[in-house]
Specification:
3 copies of one chain form a homotrimer.
Chain A lengths: L2 H9 L16 E4 L2 E7 L2 E2 L2 E2 L11 H23 L5 E12 L7 H16 L6 E7 L8 E9 L15
Helix pairs in contact in A: 2-3
């Protein structure tokens, strides 16, 4: 069994089906060894599970769960794109947008829901750079949106002599 | 005639002059085979053609035209950077910021104005990843801002086997 | 003495200590020849030096200083990541988020505080692409957040045991 799948299983995490895009775009795309994941929301299937602005309509703890759910959707999309999560070399970047009332300044705590998931699942390879900001409103009134860039191992070259290049 | 230019012509699209930056930055920059385009607004020359927040000051349909116009400006800047739009291998990423009143949640429909243009112009190569969010306000009161990353074909190596690495 | 360090010295700029992340993420990360820097705020050590929304709580001129301070923190983190700022080949991308009241539309002028610093320090290599937007609120009530991508020179391939690190 693949290592990351075993880890997910041990953590009791079942990846959801990758959400369908909400517009005229694709969920993921690979350029060289970078995989770009479209912004993901805390959706469970067609249902937006965590909605509203943090601090008034949604509490921080629940918003954090929303960030984790959006990040799970990122992983589901990533797996669909690359086939096997063991190919992940590094989670490079998370950007988190937190729907906030203007007085709320605790966005980093909310985004930790996404960040902590990455470290649980990938260990050291899950430690990423991050940008977090407050936004007034997100598509479908989602509480949080997470976008991701991941680095993957290059597929081995099949017939190019002996592969000796180290990264 | 170049293929993409022919397609633009057939679609009745004339690329505008690339807008001048609104601050101390450059409109585009190439790193390896990735081209980064600075955020573009729905400007027509010096005039901001689509201004105000969606849903109250601007209707969704007009905002969508604004997203298309901002995306056209992205293409104008891209062409100025790489010379020939036939070199585009893939539109990698669009990020869309939609100036929204807090109750407006239809940002994806607005950004489809940009996304659909990319598919019209580049076909399969125009299918990109995307992140869309609501923001309270944009520079010069623009309704929408679009930023882009594109992948281009590497220029052919001149002399096979005599690789001259550039610094 | 390294060139960029000499330039900083001549400009009277002392880089601060790189700020510690405000959540479960890392300050910087290198993929190939790209360095991703996590979003930086106008912090001086543990103190948020420039707080509040532009135009009402904070004036534009002071907000611009905040952008410069956030950009200085980016450089501090970059130096910690790559060891020597002379390795910078190009500042690729700055994204600026300016905490704004909905009526404020002068975000580019604020972000010039960050952009101008890059050109002062790196000259032509500091000329970057940029995206600037207004947000309702930032972590810890910061006035501005700056994220950065830089391109670096690849390290020369070394022979094992003959470490010739350049300064």
């Amino acid at each position: 069994m693949a290592k990351i799948e075993a880890r997910l299983s041990k953590l009791g995490i079942t990846l959801p089906a990758p959400p369908t895009p909400m517009g005229a775009y694709v969920p993921a795309l690979t350029v060289g060894n970078l995989v770009f994941i479209s912004g993901q929301l805390p959706r469970e299937g067609d249902r937006m599970a965590v909605k509203g602005k943090v601090d008034t309509e949604v509490r921080v703890g629940f918003a954090k769960q929303g960030a984790r759910l959006a990040a799970l959707n990122c992983l589901a999309v990533l797996k669909a794109e690359i086939g096997d999560l063991d190919r992940v070399k590094r989670i490079v970047r998370l950007t988190g947008h937190v729907a906030s009332v203007p007085g709320f300044i605790g966005q980093p705590e909310v985004m930790n829901g996404a960040s902590e998931l990455m470290v649980e699942v990938f260990g050291e390879r899950g430690r990423h750079t991050r940008m977090t900001l407050g936004v007034p409103v997100l598509p479908s009134d989602a509480t949080v949106a997470v976008e991701m860039i991941a680095e993957i191992e290059q597929k081995a070259l099949k017939h190019k002599g002996t592969k000796t290049r180290k990264r």
